[in-house]
Amino acid sequence: MPGTNDPRTSRRGFLAVGSGALFCTIAGQRIALDQPGAAAKADAAAARVRRPRAQPATAPGAAPEDQLTFTTPEPQPGGVVREYWIQARTMRWDIVPTGRDQWHGVAIPGRTKFTAFGYQPMTAGFAAALAPPSIPGPILSAEVGDVLRVHFRNAETKVRQGLTMHPHGVKYNPEYDGVFLGDFTRAGGFIGPGEEFTYTWEATPDSVGVWPYHDHGPNHTLNTFRGLFGSIIVRAKGDKAPDNEHVIFFHSLLPGTTGLKAPFQCINGRAYAGNTPTLTAKVGEDVAIHVIGMNDDFHDFHMHGHRWRDPAGTFVDTPIVGPNEAITARFVEDNPGRWLYHCHVFSHQDGGMAGWYLVEP
Ligand SMILES: [Cu+2]
Q1: Would residue 69 count as lying in a domain?
Q2: Is 19 left (phi over 0), alpha (psi -120 to 50) or beta?
Q3: 264: CA distance to ligand 1 center in Å?
Q4: Could you tell me the CATH number of the domain that includes residue 209?
Q5: For position 217, what pLDDT does the model report?
Q6: What are the pLDDT digits (tens) for 203-228?
Q7: CA of 23 to the centre of ligand 1 (A)
Q8: 283 is in which domain, residue-wise?
Q9: Residue 298, domain member (yes or no)
Q10: Residue 354 C-alpha to ligand 1 middle, in angstroms?
Q11: What is the number of domains present in the chain?
Q12: Assigned domain for 33 exists
């Protein structure tokens, strides 16, 4: 889709493309998310959405499946409960904190701060913050046989709307899907302002890998675009973690989301080398770089100076990664120096989707 990704698109071009590009529907209202003022409009619509009064079983049009009840899973023999306390709230976020693109050695002009939405790791009982909210949110880890028990709190006070956590990759029943389904919404699909909910997800043998989680409440497209996402890593029982492991998200922060003039092509909420994550490793290490797409675009993860095998066994250095897809570059590091990594969709690369990889000899 030209225009939505081109930093230098004219306003007319932007509107022309926007007219057919990116809509979400909230409470029956169709909102163009790439138009100026889109975030405020979507928030206002989302604030009017309430948890449905009726239970799914008695909703108009209910099916026998809506009568089903579910139990909370426990770990398999030998497995453990992995407990997390996570809240969601807005925060001021600087997309280009250094004000510069270190790759090209130039300043990035204009405003770069906006109101983002982030998941924040907390101590047990939401007693204290473990870290500030961030883009992305915390990494959740489990081994096959474990359950992830994620206590979630909607701690947002200004942008008041239902929020959730919806995981990929792990096994869950409909109570723990974390998806708003209108009249068919179950407990985990709408966590209102100030409310808490505990999700229970199972790490099964087919959960091995790296997966995203993200908001799937009534306003989830906008909320995911502005930062409500994170990752889950599931390993086989006793599987050794790589020596050096990174998770990076390829996504965008566009004017309709941020209210800023410029569009930014981002890695983990930041744009341009020196702001995006600087990954590091040492020669001899077993390195894994997990890349997840988190917007409307397809991306190409290119790492200079390195090759690795894709799941089919073919050597690659620029694999494609689509929306909410995860790919892994895993290799034994053998090439010291300063390397560039970037999305190889050129308009993304030039809009900030690039960073450094520093390898110690
Ligand atoms: Cu890209």
Answers
A1: no
A2: alpha
A3: 11
A4: 2.60.40.420
A5: 97
A6: 999 999 999 999 999 999 999 999 99
A7: 20
A8: 81-360
A9: yes
A10: 9
A11: 1
A12: no
